[in-house]
Amino acid sequence: MAAPTLSILLGVIGPWQIVLIVVVLLLMFGGKKIPELMRGLGQGMKEFKNAKDGLNDDKKEEGK
């Protein structure tokens, strides 16, 4: 059942929609600000992953 849902979502977002989203982002934030935003997003994801892995490590230690 997941396959038809995935194909519907992929059919809705096409190459022109992606181009439109990129253009809107460039207009809103400018070319210099976007790399800073992406860097911050990447760091946030990295911290989240590290925190999640830390919680998993804590649970493993409690089980021993």
Structural features, described:
The protein is an all-alpha fold. It folds into two domains: 29 residues; 34 residues. The radius of gyration is 19 Å and the shape is flat. The longest helix has 31 residues. The model has no long low-confidence stretch (mean pLDDT 77). The protein is built from three helices and no strands. Helices cover 89% and strands 0% of the residues.
Please summarize what this structure is.
By secondary structure, the protein is mostly helical. It has helices spanning 2-12, 15-29, 33-63.
Number of helices: 3
Average predicted local confidence, pLDDT: 77
Helical/strand content category: mainly alpha
Share of residues in helices? over 70%
Q: Looking at the structure, what is the overall shape?
A: flat
Q: Gap between N and C termini, in Å?
A: 39 Å
Radius of gyration: 19 Å
Any key phrases for this structure?
mainly alpha, 0% strand, 64 residues, single chain, 3 helices
Q: How is the secondary structure organized here?
A:
Blueprint: H1 2-12, H2 15-29, H3 33-63
